[in-house]
Fold:
Amino acid sequence: MDTGERIAELRMQAGLTQEQLAGKLFVSRELISKWEHGVRSPDYAEAGELARVLGVELSEIIDEEELIKEELAECIPENGGGGGQDIASLLNLFLPKLGHKARGMFVRRYHFHETPREISGMFGTSEAYVRTVLARTRRKLKQFFKEHAEK
Structure:
């Protein structure tokens, strides 16, 4: 079952219409429909709110492995972006350019597949801070791949 199907099933189990769920999340009914039909996927924060409103664990809304793959896929150009180098080699060039905390968070998330909550506990920060650091690091990674593709 994909994310959209899970959202629809959990919404119906909660006895909510798309309109009612949208109202509780302060989003449009159209967005709920897009999530349920796989046109769009909720981001981590949206999935967290969905879980809270539906009274379930986040893992029931979104598969963490699937989310990790999506997060990294947005960084890597379709052609690999490495000017002939493989992605692992490029990551080995990229990671030392990061600060200690950003590198640690990136590795914990994308190598060890830990959640932002788990990472925040390790680093003594908030989940929001971890998500911000990871988003910034992914933007840097995307730029890094782009620069190497141009070489």
